[in-house]
Amino acid sequence: MRALISLCLLFAASRLSAxxxxxxxxxxxxxxxxxxxxxxxxxHRLIANHRNQWPAAGRGFQTYAMSYDANxxxxxxxxxxxxxxxxxxxxxxxSTVLHGIYSYKLKLGDSWVIATGLDFGxxxxxxxxxxxxxxxxxQFDTNGAPSDDPAASRLGMARYFDFGSGLLIYNKTxxxxxxxxxxxxPNRSMLGEEALxxxxxxxxxxxxxxxxxxxxxxxxxxxxxxxFVYKRQGRFEQLDVGAYLLYDPLVLGVWYRGIPFNKxxxxxxxxxxxxxxxxxQFDRFExxxxxxxxxxxxxxxxxxxxxxxxxYKAPYSVKxxxxxxxxIPCPTFLGHQETTHKARKASDx
Length: 349
Hints:
Blueprint: H1 2-13, H2 30-33, E1 44-53, E2 61-72, E3 77-88, E4 93-108, E5 112-126, H3 135-139, H4 150-154, E6 158-170, E7 174-181, E8 200-207, E9 209-210, E10 223-233, E11 236-247, E12 250-257, E13 273-281, E14 285-294, E15 305-314, H5 318-327, H6 338-348
Antiparallel strand pairs: 1-2, 1-15, 2-3, 3-4, 4-5, 5-6, 6-7, 7-8, 8-10, 9-10, 10-11, 11-12, 12-13, 13-14, 14-15
């Protein structure tokens, strides 16, 4: 039955608008959110993400991503690579995309930066045929014989090119950006028909607010970091809004996902999920876990969603760090700025 459901979803996907995978910890996957984030860290940055959505509903959706990016101050540019794969259902409907990402940064005054980004992707889409059962295999005892259904012979791997872009303006305490994905409407049909991926757009922004500004020196201060992401793809809309509370090394976050002022028409869900985040961040390593508590009509039957993100920042040499920080300020999304800068000053001495 699960295989039949997966097959029905496959045929439906050839005619309906697709929806991209999404991470609840969207700033833990910055290159996926906006290519203009490439090189926004003062270090070499390695990130791994995993999301397990609706594990109780026919194996649900499994999403994996790995990325690397670095800033090249002499070129005012950032370069990145990202490999992402998404697997859905018991028949393992899999989409895999390799992204090559470039960003260019223009400094405005002493603290502001405008960054533009380009994303060039090459993707494939496939399904495990041996996990599918066609109608003629149910009606007769075929003893493992292949199906005569014409659709079985038409199914194959789809390969496609993808293209996206992004814009970002930021300083060390504020950021605002927008991105456009699938600008070339890639066709990823596995049936030799037309299954165009609709353009996906997002607007995102946030603010970093220190909660102590008194006269006494503190090694670490609590920071509140509210932010939002609004996405639109075809007829689908999604709004994520919430905040992190950071007090090194602890990270706590609460988020809401849904369209509260929408009446639920079309593909939108007015009440989707409440997300809680727990993480720890150190000078070079960060780890965070989040759980999506489903509040829509789907309820707890699907099992919510689990997500984990790992980040490692490999340092540049002292000489290159000095030059980089002088040229391009870097945004601090998770508040690990004061202690990091103090550690760098101490190492420079």
